[in-house]
Amino acid sequence: MGKADSYLLQKFLEGRCTTEELRQAKLLLDTGEGRALLDALMRRREMMVWDNPPEESAAMQQLWSQKQQEMQQRIAAYEASMAAEKKPAIHWRKVLRYAAIWTGLIMLSGLALWKFGKSRRPVHYVEMTNAKGAPRRHVLPDSTVVYLAAGSSVKYPDSYPQTGRDIELSGEAFFDVAPDDIHPFTIRSGVLLTRVLGTAFRITAYEGQIQEVVVTTGKVSISALQEEKTTELAQLTAGRKITWQPETGKAIQSAADIRSIEQWKAGDLVFTDMQMAEVVLALERRYGVTCRFEKTVTAKHVVSGTFSATDSLTGVLDMLGFVGKFSYHLSADGKTCIIK
């Protein structure tokens, strides 16, 4: 079982799975290894609750100790019954019985929280978006810096980072992750799962497009979480990148141009041997326009160029048109561009 499987089942236990993740978790739990991993995670949670009881009065401490002993006796009795039945160590009945034990722990924790005026609440998320324009700089609660590109969003629990540093990304962003050996930093972007402790990298994961991870410092681990299969794709170090093709499932590693990342953070548009079809998508996100090709062959023209954050759409199109040998027409309201 890999880190991606552990991350998925952690979300399953916390009730934070999306519909697709819930389906993947159920498929994973249909395997012996998956059920063994769930069992290990549940045991770890039990130990955390037992080893870290809340501060309380002598009477509450005595009640807590009594309940701990009762829980231990229930687990011991259960394990003895499993040995007598001579059945596999992990199956659904075991999961359900441990769920009952865990429910008892939650009830006990709830009693202590009620005693001290605290309460459990559902997980709420903080979401940051950038509809259009140059990348915007954000600082997360753990001092991790995020440059969020146009047409992109990131989402994380409002309890971040105390309950973990789990981020969901849609679109493109550069992360300069604050080091934290206790709380690994994990990003879910489409089917890709990127996990680090402290490093800097950019992820490009727009829906329906090729995904890319570029590392500028440190080291990251990248996995693909698709249906019931989790595959580790690569461990990248500084100056390396991986390109993932969702349609074929093919991942390609290569050298990365680190200097272009700094230009990107500054808001520059950097196109290196790109087809106009890809360039147009970047222009639509940056300038909030809709572009159409009058001739499909023009979409395949390959162009290169670097443009500053202050360059206008017409300035960029004029230069690209000269390089790619095409013309264009911009509507009066500046919202529609026809490339000829």
UniProtKB/TrEMBL annotation:
Give one Pfam family.
Answer: FecR
- Asked whether the keyword Transmembrane helix is assigned, the reply is yes
Superkingdom to which the source organism belongs:
Bacteria
Protein FecR C-terminal domain residues: 269-339
Membrane-traversing stretches = 95-114
Mind telling me which Gene3D superfamilies this protein's record contains?
Answer: 2.60.120.1440, 3.55.50.30
Select a single GO molecular function from the record's annotations and give it: sigma factor antagonist activity
Domain FecR protein: residue ranges: 132-220
Q: Which UniProt keywords apply?
A: Membrane, Transmembrane, Transmembrane helix
Q: What is this protein called?
A: DUF4974 domain-containing protein
